[in-house]
Amino acid sequence: VMQCSASVDVLFLLDGSYSIGRGSFEKSKLFTSKLCDALDIHPNRVRVGMIQFSSAPHLEFPLDLYLTKQEVKERIKRIVFRGGSTETGRALKYILHIGFPGGRNSSVPEVLVIVSDGKSQGSTAMPAMQVKERHITVFAVGIKFPRWEELHVLASEPAEQHVLFAGDANDAANGLYSTLTGSVCSTTAPGCKVESHPCERRTLETVKELAGNYVCWKGSKQPNAVRASLCPFYRWKRVLIKHPSRCFRTVCPDPCDSQPCQNGGTCVPEGLDQYHCLCPVGYGGDIHCAPKLSLECGVDLLFLLDSSAGVTLEGFLRYKAFLKRFLQAVMGQASPMNVGVAQYDNNVKIPIEVGQHKDAFGLMKSIDALTFSGGGTLTGRALHYVAQHGFRSTPAFADVQEDLPRVVVLLTDSKSQDPVAEAAKYARDQDLSLIGVGSSFMRAELTEVTGNPKQTIVYSDPQDLFNRIPELQRRICSVDSPEGCQAQSLDLAFAVDASAGVGLENFLRLRSFVRSSCLHFSINRDVTQIALVIYGSRAHTAFALDTHTSNSAVLQAIDQAPFLGDSASAGRALLHIYGEVMTVQKGARPGVNKVVVMLTDGGGLEDAAAPAQQLRDNGILVFVVVVGDAQRDTLLRAAGSPNYLVHISSYEDLQYYQNLIAERICEEAKSPVNLCKPNPCMNQGICILGPGSYRCQCHGWEGPHCESRILRRDSLRSPVLPLRSHVQQGLSGLQHFSRASQHTKRQ
Fold first, then answer.
1. I need a surface site. Which of 136, 512, 645, 670 has the fewest CB within 10 A?
2. Domain residues of the chain, as ranges?
3. Considering the domain 2-202 in this protein, what is its CATH number?
4. How open is the CA angle 639-643-644, to the nearest 5 degrees?
5. CATH fold of the domain at 490-669
6. At 730, is the pLDDT very low, low, confident or very high (cuts 50, 70, 90)?
7. Collapsing DSSP states into helix, strand and coil, what is residue 59?
8. How many Cβ atoms are within 10 Å of 112's Cβ, its own excluded?
9. 253-292 CATH fold
10. What is the pLDDT of residue 94?
11. Which distant-in-sequence residues (6+ apart) come within 8 Å of 345 by Cβ?
């Protein structure tokens, strides 16, 4: 994590002799690669070179050849074991003779890192002393079972800070950083400190060990006689010897020490002061796993749980857990919500009446007490029953609050054994809003129950059920609100994959989806502007934000968008939108929320992460809608968050997501806007925020958005302007500021 960031030349001297062996040599390579992580490798900062030595030194690469960390580490991987005797002294003399190959001629500090087992065939004391006399800092790193006495001779003083052990790569990398921090590198990060700690140096030594006494025969002074006696027998044995020592390392406060992750989330540190939370399912919408969902709407809410044999005991317990997680996430002190729970199999019962509990604790205890029954699946009968009896307790609260919308949430994973259509219609005729939650194979039946695909929520696997909590919250609160965002100011761009990977037939489906989505918006200069970009290997603007000013014109233009049929590059499409669509020149309006919806099969998203982040950094939201199989990691890098990723299993299912995506766009369109993001000023003008407005500071250009070049004859005027010119210039600037302010208020 920590890096030495200074101008310094680091030369690795890698032992490639037979005493090391091929296996330990590969470990040496891994270790040196690990040490590179502690170095900020850059042409103007740390440079790295490497020499392999055995019988003779061999230059693997000089310091000026590879100038990025990735290049250095890739080259280290390709180094081949050479073998030979361990001539460490000869390698040091080679460095004394030629210096640091490709180095900066002692104009920057020089660091030599020797990785060896310290079992040299010749003397190393004199060349090691001469190297250090040249003010070269020497680290000696032991590999395998080293001869520590020789490594101490090689290393700079104090030896305990310059002798490292490759067996513990992380600690050695930290030790290298810690020692360099005190001399050539920048100081440690705030809150960090270098401390010593006890450590061990291990080596194998051959020792003489008494094996025992055995009968032996000795001569005698008497002729023709021998004498029996006991003689000691010895054997040589290799013994692991541990030498107590002191090591140094830099210790920094952990950004997770404050336990920032809530609700059982796991904190994962990122660097010295950053972290991210791995949240349990259902809490992934917030960086701290906080249950920031809230219904923010008044409803009478009844959950209808399938308790039949079809869902199994495991499925019923999962529904209970989902119900508790949902209510924990959305119930607050001020949640204007009455909640009840019914369950059914052959029969229906309502163990928790709507409004029975006013506190979350009592409600959770009652949910825990629900038991699995395991009969038949009569969903139709259950719907009819709750339509008649599910909300009979709510009139008791009529004197406290107005009549609230009544919502039934059906959770089932088993096909009904009785008809559902008539019972569901009866329930809807009683002014009940029905929402269906089930696995994907239940979609058709749930849509028959709800009467609207928008009110159907399906999950792909048991774990995915908990990820549907935010979606259920939106569904419950949207039962009484109109679709779309007819009066919301918005600049919206669709990017449609028209590559061969999608194919003509599916491209037409995507185009139809865009067409249907546009019906949710009121398209004109003052409310919503829509642009369409189609892309393959290159991006093309089918029409810009300010091209069409009516819904009918936009719909006709969508039908004219052509299929391209080549390879896909989503990154190029997003860069095109950033530079050629979401700009003032192309009709984008400062002070208006901006959204990009990308429709793709997942192909060509590998280069999309950086351009998507560039759009987000400039206040432009990116939704990624993917149809079919795709790598989730790649999708999340492009979307930035699961909240902005919609993954659809097939093109046939696109129709079910149209309202959902329109809703999400409308929600985001209500968020506050930074008038200077993206920058409305053209030609490198600087956007300066004012109170409720902005102005553009231009250089060589003029106009409210720096759109007009200043003529050369103006620039040739005398640099000393009369007072009247200063006044006019000031008034002109105020007029620009005023016009921008008026424009913003009109939006």
1. 670
2. 2-202, 253-292, 299-391+403-478, 490-669, 679-711
3. 3.40.50.410
4. 35
5. Rossmann fold (3.40.50)
6. very low
7. strand
8. 25
9. Laminin (2.10.25)
10. 93
11. 306, 307, 308, 309, 373, 374, 375, 376, 377, 378
pLDDT band at 487 (very low <50, low <70, confident <90, very high): low
* Bridge partners, residue 137, by sequence: 111
Which two tokens mark 385?
């029953």
- Indicate if the alpha-carbon torsion angle 73, 614, 45, 172 is positive or negative: negative
Pair type for strands 693-697 and 686-690: antiparallel
At 481 the pLDDT is 55
Specify the DSSP class assigned to residue 201.
E
Per residue in 446-473, pLDDT (tens digit) is 988 987 777 899 998 887 888 888 888 8
Q: How many CB atoms lie within 10 A of CB 33?
A: 17
Q: Which residues in 86-225 belong to E strands, given as ranges? A: 110-116, 136-142, 163-165, 193-219
CA distances for 740 relative to 588, 590, 647, angstroms: 14, 9, 40
Worst-scoring range by mean pLDDT, 65-74, 552-561, 634-643, 733-742? 733-742
Task: Measure the N-to-C terminal CA separation of the chain; round to a whole number of Å.
Answer: 47
pLDDT of residue 482: 46
8 Å CB contact between 635 and 626: yes
> 679-711 domain in CATH 3.75.10.10?
no
Does the domain formed by 299-391+403-478 have CATH 3.40.30.10? Answer: no
- Put simply, whether the predicted model's pTM sits higher than 0.70 gets the answer no
Predicted confidence (pLDDT) at residue 436 exceeds the cutoff of 90:
yes
683 Rama sector, left if φ>0, alpha if ψ -120 to 50, beta otherwise: left
Residue 296's pLDDT is what?
61
Q: 368 φ, ψ to 5°?
A: -60, -30
Same fold flag, 2-202 and 253-292:
no
C-alpha span between 635 and 644 (Å, rounded): 10
Residue 515 parent element (H or E): helix 504-518
Mind listing the pLDDT tens digit for each residue in 574-622?
A: 999 999 999 888 888 888 889 999 999 988 888 899 999 999 999 899 9
As a whole number of angstroms, the distance between CA 639 and CA 263 comes to: 25
